[in-house]
UniProtKB/TrEMBL annotation:
GO terms for biological process: axonemal central apparatus assembly; cilium movement. Keywords: Cell projection, Cilium, Cytoplasm. It holds the Pfam family HYDIN_VesB_CFA65-like_Ig. The keyword Signal does not apply. This is HYDIN/VesB/CFA65-like Ig-like domain-containing protein. The keyword Cytoplasm applies. GO terms for cellular component: axoneme. Residues 83-180 form the HYDIN/VesB/CFA65-like Ig-like domain. It comes from the Eukaryota. It is found in: Cell projection, Cilium; Cytoplasm.
Amino acid sequence: METLLLLRMDGVAESVLRADVRDLSFSPKGELNLKASVGSCNVEIQFSPRQRTPPFTAELQAKFAGLLHPLLTIQGCCQGVEVQLDQDHLAFGAVVQRCQARKRIVMMNTGGIDARFQWKTDNFPPELSITPAKGCICPGMEVPFEVTFAPVELINDKRYENLSCCVEGSPSPVTLTVTGSCIVASTSKEVVNFVCPVRGSHSQTLPVFNPTNQHCSIRPVVEGEQWSAASSVILEPHQNKTYKITYRPLSVTADGKKHLGSVFFSFPDGTGMLYSLQGTAEPPKAEDNIVHELPAKTHHTEMLPVHNWLSQQQRFRVLMEILKPDKPDATVSLKGLEYIEVPALARRDYKMSFFTYKEGHYNTKVTFRNEGSGDYLYYLVTFKATSPGVLSTIELVTPVRQTASATVQVENPLTTVTCLTTECKCPEISAPLLHTVPGQSKGSLSFEFQPLCAGESTALLTLHSHDLGFFHYDLLLTALPPPPEKTVHFNTCLGSSHSVLVKFTNHAHFKTEYSGKTDCPEFTVDKALPQAGSEVSIEVSFEPHQLGKVRGQLSVSSAIGGDYIFPLHGISLPPKAQGPFSIRTGHRVAIPFKNIFLQTTTFSFQVDNKCFTVKQADPILSKKTHNILISFEAPPEGFRGPWFGKLTVSSKCSEGHSRPCSWVYYLKGLPL
């Protein structure tokens, strides 16, 4: 037995959209005959969506015997891309030339999968732009776009159609139409003027008003390379604000010409404000006014920074001028290189040397000029030359009363002869009072140092010229102790003395007194004799107290004339016999005898003829003279004379002498 079936499908969608019947099909179609009990057939169900399909549910039914029997339930969906804009037309209206107007559109993804998008900006006109130009949009996501209309040329009711955006997976692009026009901007009635020295700056503020109801950040357009300002201005709705702009010229305006520029403010609603700018660049001011104080006759180096304000290397010629005094001579000089090269936008130091012989104020000007463009910069430098310091220190060393000489050189830069006077308050320095130096040459001045007293001292030697000013030299003077003078020799017998007149030269420049002393008791000195011109004499006596050689030293000194050292050399010989001393009978004679020893001494007196008698004496004090009394009585015989005898005076070795000494005196007796 066979059953007759008829298959049919009834679908119910779970969303607003229903599946298209053509997208869902089954086979076989029509009536089917199935055998009883074991009859069956295969049914093929096919879903072929042609567009995005939301989730749906359908039921497959079989009809037999006039009744519908459900066989199975079919569920499905088709994930697809469905992207659209919230508006496909933007009207900007009138926008001021060189201004920008911005509007916002939104892209929505109502599909079920992610999609990439990209606007065909290559087909956009220059005055239109959109951001972002590309990206990815997720299901249920909204992407805002900012469309900017920035016309440059004046246009009237321009229409831009078919501005397309390709969406990945979408059969057709999303399109946008934009309309707008460009009008002339309103201009400020007043021209903003700027005045400053070249490479200086002058800043002014311009009023800016936000006419819109929205917070905005605008980018002013500044024309004219001499002006600079902030790149953006942030304005609140309907806010008044000031905008600072600076004029910084790099070249001088001449012949009545001016630098021209402008600054333009554009607002989000397409309106704008234009300011006209005029600048006058005056000649440059001094980069710096430098004042330097220094002693005259001192070499000074001044470092002047030279700035290159251009983006390319500059070569400057250097001009150095002395403004004051009006007619400078060769005693003042400014020196430096003739040219200096400075890299682009960099700085280099220029070395300038200054020297002057005399005190005074010297106002100078140093100009650095680009010979190609004529642009320049300059410095004013004032040098205050004070009294010159010590040019050098000269050291002189010599023994007392000997001379040491030195020489100083003085350069005369003038073309005429100059005369120098010399001054030194030290009396031991001898220098010519006047010294002349020919023009444009060097002169040498020699001076001498002849000290009188040993020691160290300092002095100042000054040379002066009306043309060249003062020259100061420090003198470090060292006078060494004097060497010994020539040895003075003495020769005498023990018991006698020998005096020598010692002479020396007084080198002091005026009269002075000398005192002398010896270091040996055998030598005694009298006070100095009066000066005979520059020669001084002093008497030294040698009185030995023992036999042999005796050495000593004579020191003659004066607070002004200094010290003199004389070595003394004496020779003591044995005593010589003296007499004869004549005595008449019945009379007596006194013979003086001096104790030349350094202590009290006992002497013995002996005569070898009985006709003569001598009286013994007590011990004799040192250096004291004792008169020895000798008496004579002629013998009664008939010899009428004369009679001779000898007196011997002896010292005893026990008195501390090295050996006994004796003195012999010859006696002669005469009758009445």
